[in-house]
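Need a sequence for this fold. Nothing fancy.
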């Protein structure tokens, strides 16, 4: 809900809130943050805003629209940094809306940390779905991020390096590309030094990076740094050049010297603080101080400079105004921390703002502009960000959220304030009066001599009725436009253009809005024209309205419709000739906004449909007459005036031509329920199909053939609004639903009762035409939704889902009734891949066409669809045998490793096959047998490869060795663990060691402990874990014997048969280095496994004796 609250009001200004209340998350952040917290805000002109606090980024809509919900707030985590994140390094990219983004429902976010970590979220509502990339900045700090085009931004660093960051709009594979901007080779050296490392004094550095309006070949880019203004022109990544750079210091010093009364320019120190653009004019905010003056107070000024479109360098300041009330700050640094805001380019207001004040400048281009300061230092308040929305300046206050500041000096509309308007009104009235006086020369009709008659001689009333003032402004403008149209019909374009200019060209505040006075006047005039009365027909004399345009003078119905078509074409030409065509925006049609251009096209289409119906009227007179009477009863127009027929009434009101479709189908249902014979049922449905098909096909043909005629060349003309053709209108009474019902009726009642092949063929031809109309309507709506809402929007996704479901439902009957050619034509035209695959699998000898379709639809993902089709049905053999030669299969099978290696073997790509097999083996955890097979196949592939895979083969051998240790586990141990001895689960070397030395392995001997020692080689030797495991193996070997029972004179005779020393002997025998794998006695005695034997001196004696003997043996071996 929109809420406006006056915060402060004085005789000079008014501060009030803007838009709805802040989201709860934003309010909590502002309340909980310390006064010293670094909080910054960006207010984007799309209606989206972001707030940065520490590493938290909050996104919300500050302006309510019909499409976007208010109150939602998304929180994202920014990259880690040791510096402070700022909103200047955030770029909001609206998605799912129009070109302006003002109705966008979603937003993409590009954020850069001060150190240069780029993070991109394709949609703000998915926090974890982002792409990240680190830039190599060499210690530089990022300064600002500026939107540049639709999916690009310009990143500037504090050392003046510029980079273009491009993001992919796809949410499936979002990517971030970075290109460093470089000046052209022909530029002088000082440009390079400016961009890549000029030395800075205490206040030097970038002030603003500003993107200009799009031009045919690219975008201009303006950079303000110190006292230098530089212009770039960028066509794309790698296609940039520096157009010029201008040193502005001297121009500003000269002006400030005059204002300050300084004796010399050398005493003036200038700072350029900010820059904004108005068309080809740069508005620059500057500060200066007179160093020779005892009172060195900084003065603030606003100057304008022409920014030429060619390579000419600016040579002078066009205007220069010193702010009489500059925003004051308590410290010197704050005195220069000021920014410029132009909310409405070309308007009279601009704003100079800092953290604690705003200065409103009124009459910027007047000789005596006024300045009014608004303070924001009360109760800890401050300005955290600024922006504009719909030509209005907005600011973000710490205490109040989004606010506006308006000066009390009201701006009256130009048509009230301008005295010259009176003269213009007089000219308007005078033109109308002259028109009414001259009208008599156009009152003699000639039925077919002109495209249409301006006025009819049969009228007995005066023609000046059209000039009467109704008191309704919209009605008066419609009448005025009608008069201008009549002037154009007389080839008096001067009067027509003057009338239109007086009526509409002054209403600039209404342009770009739905149901503006211009749009309503054009829509009403077009509707009145196609619904006009036959002025020359005496039967209509009593019904003829006084302000009729008299678009036809014919008495023949078909000729009346043709005249109306010519009149409507002339109306469209008139709208273009008087210069209001590209000013048109939108009107409400069927409860939805629709561009006025599309409405004009719809009126022409309905005229074409009416003419087609009229041509069919003789052949199907009974059916159409009954349907016409039914339609008129629904309109409550069944009381036909004397002398007229229902046909005359119906064909006169062309704007309601769609009523005939519903009336025909209702008549069809009534007749079918009356118990018709099968033959009559087929005849009735076929006749209804013929009528509807002819009417709607004629309308759609005109829509397609004349689409360029009704196309607007103005991006702001509402072309991004969703468009639903009238022949595809939805809802229970919409034509789309009626066509679907007729499709079902044709399949269920007509085809089923057709007795001969000829009748069936005719019905299927009609069915194909109805299917075409339905799917063409969907395609037009999808294309419009993609342009208006975006391909990633919820609306587009839902519509596409309905389309794909409806498409298969409509085409499937052709397949079921073996109408393969018609099914193929429709499936190919509308890319129903499921139907195409079924056609090729239907056993009709068309399997060879599958390869053809793969080539034909290679850029639309048909191959992937086919591959997935066979995988989902478990037909993997057919997939690999029929399509192994296609390169797309290898790419498709990359996520399907269990099949991909077979394709690699088939294509002799053995290196890739061994890599895939090893990955599969690594992921295998349930079956040792399967893992062994995969490793063995991988080894064979490596051996078959022409590349050197010795390292990979060695690694495979090591893994196979570990599997051998699986297979050598004692059978009794496997049984105790309840494992399947024929197919053990895959275990790590550490897990195998634990099993070999575990207490469950009650029959373990030196061979088991030796295998445990062998498995140590597959573990990382670094760290204490490896050493502890090695010591545990020897401790467990010690615990396998009873050391207290070893008595005698020579202890070696007893201990040499212990498991411990047998393991050592076997390890020595098989080449293990005991100095590395056998711990010393002290380490063994201190281990927790032998805690119970530490005080056993007998054991310690025997252990040390054994170690002494081992040491002698090792010495002897050397």
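Here you go.
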């Amino acid at each position: 809900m929109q809420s406006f609250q006056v915060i402060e009001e004085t005789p000079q200004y008014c501060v009030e809130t803007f838009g709805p209340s802040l989201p709860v998350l934003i309010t909590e952040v502002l309340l909980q943050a310390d006064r010293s917290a670094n909080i910054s805000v960006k207010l984007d002109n799309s209606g989206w805003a972001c707030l940065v606090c520490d590493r938290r980024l909050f996104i919300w809509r500050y302006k309510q629209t019909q499409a976007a919900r208010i109150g939602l707030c998304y929180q994202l985590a920014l990259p880690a940094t040791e510096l402070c994140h700022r909103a200047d390094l955030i770029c909001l990219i609206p998605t799912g809306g129009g070109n302006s983004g003002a109705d966008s429902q979603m937003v993409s976010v590009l954020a850069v940390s001060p150190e240069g970590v780029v993070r991109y979220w394709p949609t703000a509502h998915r926090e974890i779905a982002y792409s990240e990339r680190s830039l190599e900045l060499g210690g530089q700090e990022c300064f600002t991020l500026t939107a540049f085009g639709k999916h690009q931004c310009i990143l500037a660093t504090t050392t003046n390096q510029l980079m273009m960051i491009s993001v992919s709009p796809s949410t499936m594979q979002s990517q971030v590309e970075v290109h460093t901007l470089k000046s052209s080779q022909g530029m002088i050296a000082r440009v390079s030094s400016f961009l890549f490392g000029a030395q800075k004094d205490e206040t030097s550095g970038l002030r603003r990076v500003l993107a200009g309006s799009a031009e045919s070949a690219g975008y201009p880019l303006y950079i303000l740094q110190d006292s230098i203004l530089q212009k770039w022109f960028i066509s794309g990544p790698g296609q940039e050049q520096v157009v010029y750079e201008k040193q502005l210091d001297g121009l500003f010093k000269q002006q400030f010297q005059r204002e300050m009364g300084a004796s010399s320019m050398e005493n003036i120190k200038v700072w350029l603080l900010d820059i904004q653009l108005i068309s080809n004019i740069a508005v620059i905010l500057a500060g200066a101080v007179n160093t020779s003056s005892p009172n060195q107070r900084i003065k603030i000024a606003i100057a304008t400079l022409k920014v030429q479109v060619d390579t000419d360098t600016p040579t002078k300041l066009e205007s220069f105004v010193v702010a009489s009330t500059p925003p004051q700050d308590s410290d010197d640094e704050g005195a220069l921390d000021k920014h410029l805001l132009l909310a409405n380019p070309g308007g009279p207001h601009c704003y100079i703002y800092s953290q604690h004040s705003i200065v409103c400048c009124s009459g910027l281009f007047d000789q005596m502009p006024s300045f009014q300061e608004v303070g924001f230092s009360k109760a800890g308040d401050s300005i955290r960000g600024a922006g504009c929305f719909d030509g209005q300046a907005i600011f973000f206050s710490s205490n109040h959220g989004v606010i506006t500041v308006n000066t009390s000096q009201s701006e009256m509309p130009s048509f009230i304030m301008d005295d010259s308007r009176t003269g213009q009104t007089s000219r308007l009235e005078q033109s109308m009066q002259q028109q009414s006086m001259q009208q008599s020369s156009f009152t003699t009709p000639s039925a077919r001599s002109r495209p249409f008659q301006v006025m009819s001689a049969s009228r007995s009333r005066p023609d000046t009725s059209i000039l009467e003032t109704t008191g309704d402004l919209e009605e008066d403008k419609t009448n005025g436009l009608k008069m201008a149209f009549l002037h154009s019909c007389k080839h008096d374009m001067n009067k027509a253009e003057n009338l239109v200019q007086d009526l509409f060209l002054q209403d600039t505040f209404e342009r770009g809005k739905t149901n503006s006075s211009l749009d309503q006047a054009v829509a009403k005039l077009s509707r009145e024209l196609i619904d006009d009365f036959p002025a020359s027909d005496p039967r209509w004399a009593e019904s003829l309205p006084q302000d009729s345009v008299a678009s036809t003078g014919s008495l023949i119905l078909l000729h009346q419709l043709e005249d109306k078509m010519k009149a409507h074409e002339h109306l469209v030409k008139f709208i273009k000739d008087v210069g209001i065509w590209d000013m048109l925006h939108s009107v409400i049609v069927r409860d939805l906004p629709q561009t006025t251009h599309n409405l004009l096209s719809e009126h022409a289409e309905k005229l074409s449909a009416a003419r087609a119906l009229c041509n069919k009227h003789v052949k199907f007179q009974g059916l159409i007459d009954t349907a016409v009477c039914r339609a008129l009863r629904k309109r409550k127009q069944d009381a036909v005036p004397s002398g007229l027929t229902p046909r005359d009434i119906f064909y006169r009101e062309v704007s309601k031509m769609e009523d005939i479709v519903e009336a025909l189908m209702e008549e069809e249902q009534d007749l079918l329920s009356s118990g018709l014979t099968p033959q009559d049922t087929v005849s009735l449905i076929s006749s209804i199909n013929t009528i509807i098909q002819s009417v709607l096909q004629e309308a759609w043909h005109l829509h397609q053939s004349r689409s360029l005629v009704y196309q607007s060349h103005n991006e702001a003309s509402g072309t991004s609004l969703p468009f639903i053709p009238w022949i595809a209108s939805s809802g229970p009474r919409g034509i789309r639903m009626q066509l679907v019902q007729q499709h079902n009726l044709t399949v269920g009642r007509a085809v089923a009762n057709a007795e001969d092949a000829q009748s069936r063929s005719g019905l299927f031809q009609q069915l194909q035409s109805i299917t075409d109309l339905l799917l063409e309507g969907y395609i037009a709506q999808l294309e419009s939704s993609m342009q208006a809402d975006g391909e990633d929007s919820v609306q587009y996704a839902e519509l596409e889902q309905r389309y794909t479901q409806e498409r298969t439902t409509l085409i499937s009957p052709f397949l079921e009734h073996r109408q393969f050619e018609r099914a193929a034509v429709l499936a190919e035209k509308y890319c129903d891949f499921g139907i195409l695959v079924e056609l090729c699998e239907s056993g009709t000898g068309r399997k060879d066409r599958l390869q053809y379709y793969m080539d034909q639809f290679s850029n639309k993902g048909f191959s992937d669809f086919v591959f997935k089709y066979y995988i989902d049905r478990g037909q993997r053999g057919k997939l690999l045998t029929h399509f192994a030669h296609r390169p797309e299969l290898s790419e498709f099978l990359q996520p399907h490793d269990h099949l991909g290696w077979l394709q690699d073997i088939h294509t002799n790509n053995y290196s890739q096959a061994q890599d895939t097999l090893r990955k599969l083996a690594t992921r295998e955890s349930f079956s040792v047998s399967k893992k062994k097979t995969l490793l063995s196949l991988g080894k064979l592939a490596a051996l078959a490869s022409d590349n050197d895979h010795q390292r990979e083969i060695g690694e495979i051998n090591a893994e196979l060795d570990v599997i051998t240790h699986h297979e050598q586990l004692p059978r009794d141990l496997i049984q105790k663990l309840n494992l399947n001895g024929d197919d053990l689960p895959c275990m790590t070397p550490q897990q195998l060691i634990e099993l070999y030395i575990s207490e469950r392995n009650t029959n373990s001997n030196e061979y088991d402990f030796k295998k445990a020692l062998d498995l140590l080689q597959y573990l990382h030797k670094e760290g204490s874990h490896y050493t502890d495991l090695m010591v545990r193996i020897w401790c467990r070997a010690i615990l396998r014997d009873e050391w207290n029972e070893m008595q005698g004179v020579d202890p070696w005779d007893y201990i040499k048969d212990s498991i411990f020393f047998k393991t050592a002997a076997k390890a020595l025998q098989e080449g293990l280095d005991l100095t590395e794998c056998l711990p010393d006695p002290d380490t063994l005695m201190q281990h927790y496994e032998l805690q119970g034997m530490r005080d056993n001196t007998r054991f310690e004696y025997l252990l040390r004796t054994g170690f002494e003997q081992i040491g002698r043996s090792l010495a002897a071996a050397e």
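For context: The chain is about 40% helix and 15% strand.
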